[in-house]
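Collaborator request, handled under Task 6.
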Amino acid sequence: MQIRLFKNRPLRLFLGSYLTLLTLLLIAPIESRNDFSAQSILIGISFPFFFATFYAIGQRRIPSHIDIYINPSRLNIIINVLVSIVLTGLALRLIDRIILRGASFTSNFLENRLAVAESETSAVSFFALLLCHFALVIPTLLAIRKAGGRKRNSDKLLLLVCFLYPITDLFLFGLRYPIIIQLVSIWVAAGLFYERKKFLKRHLILFALFPAVVWALGYTFTLRASQSGIDPINSMTQSAYATFTPISPEGEEFVKSDETGFVYGLVHIAQYFSHGIFEFFYAIENNSNITSDGAYSLYIPFKITATILGITPSADERVQEAMPRPYVYTTYFGPLFFDFGHYAILAACIIGFYSGRVYKYLFRGSLEFLPLHTALCTALPFAAAVNILAILNGQIFLLVALLSYPALKWARNPVKPSAPRKSGD
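Structure tokens returned to the collaborator:
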């Protein structure tokens, strides 16, 4: 089975993130409080510059497309196994959350969060979460099967299975990250299977769904805030994310007069997306030279190692000590700055370069790099606001992408299949 991948230019996603930030700062009804020194701003903007530069160096000379040959029977086996893994993980997660910890679909977000927080996270809980995240790889495999002309009627049902975990977390706890990562990862991976013009035409519906997504995100936050005793409108000026990007007085009146909730969702997203850059400038300006030594960017391996070896302080304590202001976004590069201090720019260059190399290896025919490339690219549209790969869901995405590497290498035919021999007369 042959598939063709097309160059999707990941740096466009990265640059688009900063163009979106600039657009929001110009047109959104929010005020930006920026009294930082020129040195802090210069250091802050140097991070995306060096990251993009070294990404471009790492990915140089990529062809416009690449043909890859895959063993279809092996691909089908991998898909079936991963679907079983995801369903097993979902069952374990629901048992852990509902039966063992007392969460319920009839309770509100706050009650469920408190019920889960009363007991410590167990190995079963983490294992279930890990299995559920293989749902991030399945849509890419389904796209491969479709591109090879082996699409099945059951593929739509399998795609629905991939959304069971993020939907249950959304309804139980109001968590938005799982479903956002799932949607964006599908969109990023899909861009590899079409030429750019065809991709935009075939996925025009995604742009049509934008108002519904904005409303849903805003509504979810409204519910969470109300259940916590916080006025959603007041949070736009008083919450941590509003410190440097509060809503303007005119914007506040506009939000109050809107009965649909769409304007609230739009302004809420604008604040969430735009405050990270100012928090990053603030962190640079108020640098205490205390670093978290990798506990932020490499939270999962650091926490496992610290638990086994009894290292103190813990990963959470190190991160809290290094961050001048907790519970805020700090762009893609904030976690690197908290982890490595003055060496963070070097870390950004290294990550940029090897992210580009992963892309290059993929276009050398190494299909096994596709899940990792998808995971790395999923973070790029959010780079101006937050590092998706530094949160728990993002780190597990990277982990399952690495765990999927041997399976996809097994599925790939190393050479082009020979043409069948013609029979003689």
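The cover message to the collaborator said: "Residues 2-287+324-411 form one domain. The first strand starts at residue 2 and ends at 6. Please let us know whether this matches your experimental observations."
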